[in-house]
Amino acid sequence: IERTLSIIKPDATRRNLTGKINAKFEDAGLRIIAQKRIQLTKAQAGVFYAVHKERPFYDELCEFMASEPVVVQVLEGENAITKNREVMGATNPADAAEGTIRAEFAESVGENSVHGSDAPDTAKDEIGFFFSQLEIV
Ligand code: ATP
Ligand code: MG
């Protein structure tokens, strides 16, 4: 059983899509074992996305992630990291498979509704960034 860190991004919380997105996770067999709504500062978003700091979209990405509240969550299930990324769909919604979250809901490659960890080590770090052990049940 594996865990991954998911973020419902500001474009999706703004459009009241949290429930529809959570239904996609649950329908895929992912269990939401921790969840909270928070608003990041731009500096916090910058730390979270530090891996992208040399990319041209970094500043815009941090601005966007701090623009409105996000819902951060821990998803648990068999192969949760891969399964979550399948349910999310490709980064660019134009390339995302039918039925995926990004195909249905994302507005652009930047404002693409969800984040999901991409490997076991990043999942562990990203879960620890937002949650203490006591909050994960
Ligand atoms: P995430 O890490 O958010 O789950 P991802 O792994 O599919 O998404 P990454 O390559 O890690 O994609 O990019 C991180 C985020 O940066 C993307 O989800 C998107 O919000 C933003 N991003 C990526 N590429 C671009 C781009 N070309 N223009 C604008 N924003 C981008
Ligand atoms: Mg990524």
Short description:
The protein has 137 residues and is α+β, with helices and mostly antiparallel strands. The protein has helices at residues 10-14, 18-27, 42-48, 58-65, 80-88, 101-105, 120-130; strands spanning 2-8, 31-38, 70-77, 114-116.
How is this fold's topology laid out?
Blueprint: E1 2-8, H1 10-14, H2 18-27, E2 31-38, H3 42-48, H4 58-65, E3 70-77, H5 80-88, H6 101-105, E4 114-116, H7 120-130
Antiparallel strand pairs: 1-3, 1-4, 2-3
Helix pairs in contact: 3-4
The structure holds adenosine-5'-triphosphate (ATP) and magnesium ion.
Adenosine-5'-triphosphate binds near residues 91 and 115.
Characterization of this structure:
It is globular and about 35 Å long. With 137 residues, it is of the alpha+beta class. The chain has a four-stranded antiparallel beta sheet with strand order 2-3-1-4. The mean pLDDT is 98. Helix 3 crosses helix 4. It has helices at 10-14, 18-27, 42-48, 58-65, 80-88, 101-105, 120-130, and strands spanning 2-8, 31-38, 70-77, 114-116. Major role in the synthesis of nucleoside triphosphates other than ATP. The ATP gamma phosphate is transferred to the NDP beta phosphate via a ping-pong mechanism, using a phosphorylated active-site intermediate.
